[in-house]
Structure formats: structure tokens, C-alpha cells
Amino acid sequence: MSFLVPLVSSVVAPAVELILVDFHSSSTTFPTFVLSIFVLGFAVGPLLLPPLSELYGRVIVYNATNVLFVVFTILCAVSHNEAMLLGFRFLSGFAGVATISIGPASIADIMPREKRGKAVSLWAVGTVIGPMVGPIIGGYVAEVLGWRWIFWIISIIAGLVTVVALTILRETYPPVLLERKASRLRKETGNANYRSRLASDLGLQELVIRSIMRPSKMLLLCPIVTASCVYISVQTYLIDAFGHHSASVNGANAALRGLAGALIPLSGLDLYKTLGLGWGNSLLAFIALALAPLLWILAVYGEKIRKTDLFKLKL
């Protein structure tokens, strides 16, 4: 799914003209927005889904969002106007981003720290290759079968993956596993004193609110997270640094990445129209160059910054 969902972000690009003809539209914003709105779902989903995985476990979030992704992709295939297609593209991006935003956290659950780098690198290959091969597949399918079959084929493959996931996935998040064990012992022994050592002292309502707010707080109030997310897929560093909140911190990363991916292309045409290809690309390169020292700063001063009282958050 972590390969398939990013693929869907770009797979429709070669078919935009066919969609406009089918909908009898001459919109100038639709070609860009039909791509960006899916990635906008990438920005919204990580603010909600990773915290839910830290409340109720990874597996239930994976399975629920996988099913929803299939449903919304099918609804994209049967859309009969621009608004309907855009709406379900956003919802499919919102649901599909769960595997991307929670994936590194699952790796952190089951892999020792010294092996996480390799594991996350292997996992990340799919998220990088997906958007690259998407237009190739989409162009061929649209030309041979029509643009709707792009979504039908994606939904069939995603459906098969979802069935496999429903069959084989098991919970990996330690606080949820320990709480289930404590609950079972309370029920079996009648002793209400059995309690998970990782359980929170907060009430359910406060716990839910704090969990849902956690990615936004990390992104806006923790400079380590903000700097890392602004510069650059840094999952390994973040999941090592933030332990049991690895899903939330990766959600913050995915949210900012999705927001940038959705909004920057909307201004891309104006950028190149104003500056030309040469200076337009140079401007982006200069911004990347200015941010390059961030990785060195994190390597040298990261721990000291994280331990500064000013930046300590109640997560």
C-alpha cells in the first residue's frame, strides 16, 4: 500500500485531457488541482490517523483506511463530474496516507534501533518509486482502456492487498499490546489492580484530544521536528528521537510534506511563467541550499535542543 498510494497521486496526470473531454469541461485549474487535491489529503490525514494508531493500535487504523481507500478509489472511477472526482480524490488521499504516515512507526515497533535505518530505507523505496511510475502506467491504461480504468485497476489491486492485510497483520504497538494483556488479566483474575506500565493517567476524553493535537504541536512547537520536516521522506531520525510517539511525529512530517506537495504545484506555472525555467529551477535550488546545513545542525546539536526546557512539550 505504501507503494500503491503514492502511485495514485500521479497516475491520473496523463489522463487529465481525456477527463476534461469526458466531462465537457475547459477548466484551466482542474488539470493541476486534480493532482494537488489528492496530496492535500496527505496533509490532513496525518494529523488524525497516526494519533489514532497510538490510541487504538496500528492494525485497526491500517485495515479501516485500506478499506476506505478502495471504496473512494472506486467512487473516483464512477465520478460523473469534476466536483465528484475532486472530492473522492481528496478522500482517497486522506485514507491512503495512513500507511505512509504510520509505516515507519510500525517499523520502530518491531525493529531494534540499529536496524531501523535499513528497514525504513527499504520501505521508503515504494513511496519514492510510486509517483515516478504512476504517470507511465496511467498514460498507457488511459490510452488503451480509458481513464476510468486507471481507478478500477488500482481499486482491484488495493482490494487484494487489503484482503491480505486483514488476514496477516498483527498489532505491534507496545502500549496497546500491554493494555490488552492487562485487560485480559483483570478479566481472568478479577483483580482490578492489573495495569499496563505504559498506560496513561489521563481520562479518555483528554487522552483523545491530546493525541489528536500531538502532531500539530510537534510540528509547530518543537523546532527539531519543524526543521527536519521543512528540509526533508527523515523518518528514521524522528522515530528514534520520539520513541512511543513515533507515529505522531511521522504524521507531522507527512502533513507538512503533503501540504507542500499540494500547494507548491498550484504556484508552479506562475513561478516558471515569471522567472523562466532557468531562474525558476535556480530559485528552488537556492532554497534547498539554504536549508542544507540543517542536517549538520541536527547531528551536532539535536540532543541539546530536544532537552532544552523551552522546547519540552507535554505529548
TrEMBL record:
InterPro entries: MFS, MFS_dom, MFS_trans_sf. It comes from the Eukaryota. The chain crosses the membrane at residues 28-49, 61-80, 86-107, 119-137, 149-169, 218-239, 283-302. Keywords: Membrane, Transmembrane, Transmembrane helix. GO terms for molecular function: transmembrane transporter activity. It is a multi-pass membrane protein. It holds the Pfam family MFS_1. One of its GO terms (cellular component) is membrane. Gene3D superfamilies: Multidrug resistance protein D. Residues 1-315 form the Major facilitator superfamily (MFS) profile domain. It is found in: Membrane. Its main location: membrane. Belongs to the major facilitator superfamily. This is Major facilitator superfamily (MFS) profile domain-containing protein.
